[in-house]
Amino acid sequence: MFQTLFLKESKQIVRSIVYYIYVVVFVMFLSSQLGSELTERMEKPEPGQESYGTINSKDESAIMEKYLGELVLETNHNSYATYPMGFIKRVTLNNTELDKIKSIVEVCTGKSWEKIIEDIENHFQKYNQSTMEGAIQAQVEFSIFPKESLSYKEFCNNMEQVCKIIGAGSSYNKEKLNLGVGVPMTYEQAVEEFEAVCKKDRITGTTARLFCDYAGIILSILPIFLGVTRCLRDKRAQVSQVVYAHRASAFQILGSRYLANVCMAFLPVVITAFVMQLPYQYHAKTIGVSPDILAFLKYTCIWLLPEIMIVLAVSFFITELTENVLAIFIQVFWAIISLFGSMSLKGNFGFGLIARWNALGDTNEFWKQKQEFFINRGFYFALSLVVFLLAIVIYEKKRKEGETIYGKIFKHRK
Predict the structure, then answer these.
(1) Each residue of 330-361: pLDDT tens digit?
(2) For residues 227 and 231, what is the distance between their CA atoms, to the nearest angstrom?
(3) What are the two backbone dihedrals, phi and then psi, of residue 49, each rounded to the nearest 5 degrees?
(4) Cβ–Cβ under 8 Å, residues 348 and 320
(5) Are 342 and 171 in contact (CB under 8 A)?
(6) 121: part of which helix (H) or strand (E)?
(7) DSSP 3-state assignment of 56?
(8) What's the Cα-to-Cα distance from 294 to each of 34, 170, 299, 301, rounded to whole Å?
(9) What is the C-alpha separation between 401 and 211, in angstroms, rounded?
């Protein structure tokens, strides 16, 4: 019975226009984010290169130096980037507040504000400001050294005062500082990272992570439309009473629907990942590395499948409860909060719905956070089952008592 219902549900999904919109949007989004030029960044580093990229550092001196530089530049322009609701908001301070910030900078650096302005001018004169590359390089390489007697604890306390002045979503909060900063990578570090990409990731592993990072963003929303559409189909066709009278159990009916939606939502993800991985398999062979040909499957199953499961479980639960499209708005809100609420684009997974690792490489760092990643994905896998079981409870109640649970007058069958 379950197999028959599952096949029937799968066929209905394939015939749905919503499903093809789902596939097209997903493929277009991924195609716009990933390109074959990424292979250029997976070549063995050579001595004497101008740059080897950056590596995250939690060295206290590096953190103080980088954030003081950022604070000085924002203070000089009196324009502070904040993210109170995940979206950027520029804050302009009044003269009193601005003087307080300058005073904090002077305490941290041991220099007068006039001397700091002089240092800024001397630094930017070294770069060609007429080109975008020069301007960006000048910004990236600018930093201010703290005074030697400044401890990291004192620095954090001063940054806490800065946050209070600037307001919510400031870049200088303790959580942001604890994430570390990007520092230039040395040749030795670049070689070590390249060897990790070749040995641990076998090239395709790191590209699979980047694929999952982007795919996870769009999959935090897209599957909700499949789930809501299916849950409301019987209502639109006015066959609810016929379905309720079906001899199959609520678990068989709703379970086959849920599993069919999960499988059909996951299918284009696996196919797209496989197709996009092919150039990197070829690239791995050209540099003498045996690629992990199953990387796309392993990462999508562990990374993306739990996300699809929880999004669809939420859609089934809320739609069965309310019999309307409220689930779409709730899921979009949850996805936005998860996306913009993340303190990092690379790791620090916590319990966020969208697992981020927006980097090609950083293999050793990912391996350090692997356990946290598995806990995150395992949590959503388990949560999806719990939420789906609640949807079955609601469905069974409606089936037995002939009533809607929310938003309508109860109507019992005789």
Answers:
(1) 999 998 888 877 667 777 888 889 998 888 87
(2) 6
(3) -65, 150
(4) no
(5) no
(6) helix 113-124
(7) strand
(8) 19, 42, 9, 11
(9) 46
Q: Which two tokens stand for residue 169?
A: 């979503």
SS3 344: coil
Q: What is the pTM of this model?
A: 0.78
Element (H, E) at 194: helix 187-196
Going through 146-278 in order, the beta strands assigned E by DSSP cover 181-184
Report phi then psi at 175, rounded to 5: -60, -40
Rounded Cα gap, residues 307 and 318, in angstroms: 17
Tokens of 371: 């356990």
d(CA 232, CA 280): 42
What count of residues does the chain have? Answer: 414
In angstroms, the Cα distances linking 322 to 49, 166, 231, 277, 289 are 60, 42, 11, 41, 53
> pLDDT tens digit string along 52-75?
777 888 888 889 988 998 899 899
Residue 352 structure tokens: 């966020």
Q: How far apart are CA 171 and CA 168, in angstroms?
A: 9
For 334-367, b/e burial (b = at least 16 CB within 10 A) is bbeebbeebebebbebeebbbbbbbbbbbbebbe
- Cα–Cα distance, 361 to 392 (Å, whole number): 42
